[in-house]
Amino acid sequence: MKLGKVIRWELNQSLRSKQFVIVTILIPVVIGLVAFVASRAIGGKVDASSEPPPPFIIGMFLAFILFLGAFMSGVMTMYGVMKEKQSRVVEMMMSSVSAWELMCGKLIGLGLAGLVQVIVWSAIVYVGAGLFIPISLASLTLVHWITYPLYFILGYLFIASIFGTVGASIKDIHSGGAVGLAGAIPYLPMMFIWLILDKPDTLWIRIAGFFPPFVPGVMLLRIGATPIASEGTRFVPTWEIALSLVSLALGTLLMMRFATKVFEVGMLMTGKSASLRELWRWGRSKA
Amino acid sequence: MSEALLHVEGVSKTFESVRAVNDVSFNVGRGEILGFLGPNGAGKTTTIRMILGIFRPDSGTIHCALDGASGEVPKERTGYLPEERGLYSDAKVLELLVYFGELKGLTRTEARQRARTWLERFDLLDWASKRVEKLSKGMQQKIQFTASILHRPDLVVLDEPFSGLDPVNQNLLHEIIGGLRKDGTAILLSSHRMNLVEALCDRIFLIHNGRRVLYGDLEEIKESHGEHAVAMRFTGDGSELAQLPGVANLRLEEGRATFTLERHVGPDAFVRNLPESIEIRALSVDRPPLHDIFVRTIEGRVS
What we know:
The structure holds two protein chains of two kinds. By secondary structure, chain A is mainly α.
């Protein structure tokens, strides 16, 4: 009940903010322009008879857009939590809702706003790129339709809760420090993007795919890349998909709880930012 | 005062080895205003936060007697006006009030209706669709107050409710708080403005270093801190005053004197015994202001 109200409020507030509108419209326009100029530079020959894009392109696109979108709304969450702490609205809120409701409401509300953003971006890309190359989603199978949204949404919440934790633990925007780097962990798989696309069944990649922070990055790429790259198996084994999803879901829940705890303790300590060790203690303390 | 609504019993809270609140007990009745006083850092905010369920006490209990049953303090039935402004600065005034009202269990329509009524009463209806940040400090304080009572809570905690308000608005708020008391709301009022506490509160609770140092009926506390404060204007040099029984802490200036009466001399006896040689132009005899009781009690503890 109350959670729904908090979600609706956070969603409405962010959809209406200027920054949101600017980022949602401006980013795809800039990217589109760059792509357009780049394609002109390399000759810009459009092969009308080319095949529809294989799933790995779409997986890659989703991974990119997930990380970009999660970063945007993660920063918004971080900023929102921090501001709430500073402005003491938190006392008003906490006398009405629980810390868990407040934190979840923020993460989900801002996450939904991020989803709107992502849908707008995807639509722009779909329509915009469609002018130059034929785009069809025909190559996607049921597995993709089921797994992509799940990895996407859970990954989103996971990353946003990391940023929420950071926001709850710092004093102001200038004091991110070591804690702020935690937000970068889920982005690590993107550094190995070509390795993952090239040999998606390598053992270390398969193992990384069960570790919550790496699940969204690794799995979005792996599931897309597997049918073309591997010869023996056509798909990532179902049990691996299931296990990675369970692992990510549990990781997300834990991360959200951790963010809530840090928030509960951190809101009293307006004067200082937490060190990593303090963060660990806050996250496990009883309120 | 009828049956007490809020019961705080033996509550303690420790933060990282600092004992913020130590074995504190008190209660607040329906239709009663309890003044919750103490120097900065005495443990007031911590106690208030525990009452509102923002965090739990390490030991002791806080419970509410509502609808004939006793239980935890329900968040829907409490209102809170924090000391520092707690509003989303980029939200619109009416929408924010509706949101806070909804979180306290009102429906959207109810919340909107009541918010409009209050905005009108505070002469802020023109600001309903403006952003909070455009409002002056005093206006924001009125919004904050509205948010704390919109849902007609049974228990209201007001922390410095008059801060930032001009005298006209102070009167208005004074009147409204009086109205709440009349309607049977239990009110916990925390403030450093002793004159307001004196004007509003039935009883007071003074906390220092996390412990109770004074608790009881305001009138009785004043009575027990016997010494009356006298201020007078007169013609003459006033040298006789020093000879009078019971006069202490005398300060004489040109035609003006302030002093206290020792406990054994009441104002009645003092006035009767005034020598005719002093020609009085103005005279006030008052019980010690709460301000003095506060300072004396706290300083007495420190030394």
